[in-house]
Amino acid sequence: MNESELFTLVVELEDKPGQLLRVLEPIAKNGGNIVGIVHQRGKRTPLNRVPVEISFTADSKRAEKIFRELESFVVVRSFGKIKSSTISLLLIGHVVHTDLSDTIKRIDNEDAECVELNMKMPELDQPSTAILTISAKSDEALEKAVERVRDICKEKGILVVEPVDVI
Amino acid sequence: MIKIAIIGFGTVGQGVAELLARKREEIEKRIGKFKVVAIADLTGSISGDFKLEDAIESRKQGKLPEQRSAMEVAEQEDYDVMIEVTTTRLDESGIVYMKTALNKGASVITSNKSIAIALPELLKMAEKKNAKLLYEATVGGAMPVIKLLNSYLALCEIQRINGILNGTCNYILTRMEEEGLPYSQVLKEAQEMGIAESNPTADVEGIDAGIKLVILANTIGIPAKFEDVEREGITKITPHAFKVAMQKGFTIRLIAEASRRKLRVSPRLVKINSPLAIKGTLNALLINTDTAGEIFVAGRGAGKFETASAILSDLYELFRSSGSR
After folding, report:
1. B113-132 pLDDT, tens per residue?
2. Which residues of B are catalytic?
3. Which CATH superfamily is domain B2-141+304-322 in?
4. Closest CA to B36 of B56, B61, B11, B65
5. Which residues of B touch A162 (CB under 8 A)?
6. Which pick of A72, A158, B173, B285 has the fewest CB atoms within 10 Å?
7. Partner residues linked to B286 by β-bridges
8. pTM recorded for the entire structure
9. Domain A5-81, CATH among 1.10.510.10, 3.90.550.10, 1.10.150.130, 3.30.70.260
């Protein structure tokens, strides 16, 4: 089963008639369902192009095809899934000394990623505290990411304090 | 006439006897005439025609007047209900009294958390003998949870329960949150105030909450044992943790959680405006159901009369149809 997901892309369009339609066509043709279009007129580029943000739902495969087609004739600034679920986890322990970047690298994957980290490091050799926010494209992906955090932190001797009632 | 035997005559047992004496008129209006036919504990026993006040007085002076042991009383006396309020030891010591009563076809009301190791067995035994086992006082003190789950929510699917079941931990975490004090300092304060015991392990390591969680889980049809509970205490929580959590609008509480998927007792992030962000020594339980949505109860989780009041509520439950209204 291919589940429909929410995507967002930003394309740069020349400010003349018919440009938007050219971009929307491949989305519609490939079964994408357009849910929003925002002209960013205030952000006109030096080449006098207007960035336009388009949101649509489609399954991953079709979205990829839409992206390839658009890329062939227009500047695509960004393209990605909208990450819809987030969670904050509190980590207590030697968060830094146990290779923080390794921790984050192992949590991140294509469906979920760490988007924010706030830390307090009281004294040398004392446990520090971090609150880590993870975003994921779905609740399932988020739950898997939390499971990865649990495993990694168990291995590194870090206490994970999870929120009540989120997952 | 309802005949009551009280086994265990420490703080809770004396609290029950005091309430039975003080509220006799109200109680009898609800459930009919009653008589405490015997009281027994490790110091001795008392039976026959005696005043509850005298029993309490003689226990306060040192021991109960008669030589018969609690086991002999449990076996020999004629009673309709045993109020078993001996100390929780997580072994068979209290359970043998309950089994003796149930085998005779008498019902049992208990505050003994040891039932966590034998609840399904005891309930089966009670059913077979057409008797009842009621244990409201084992979880959450005065807070009505067992009968809430068993009766009022009997036709709901209980999807998840999240509880604050240990007042000592909640007190320590609240003080750390409010004063920014380290765990060890607040623990010492709690010990001096008599909120924490000199050996605080059972509380601060989540053992007590875990035992209560097992009782709740079995009550909602999850056949759980203590070993099934994933457990993490509060000893690693730092004052900084509260400050960092607050940046996202959270505080930290020791939460006992039961669902079909998981049983765990662990420190958790709780939104500061959540009902579970309850303060001080209070206990709380948040129940998620399929049809009734969320239900929340809170109250005093421990104390002589709080626990005794839970026992009286079981007594009422057992005999309420026999009263005059």
Report:
1. 999 999 999 999 999 999 99
2. 212
3. NAD(P)-binding Rossmann-like Domain (3.40.50.720)
4. B56
5. 266, 268-269
6. A72
7. B162, B296
8. 0.83
9. 3.30.70.260
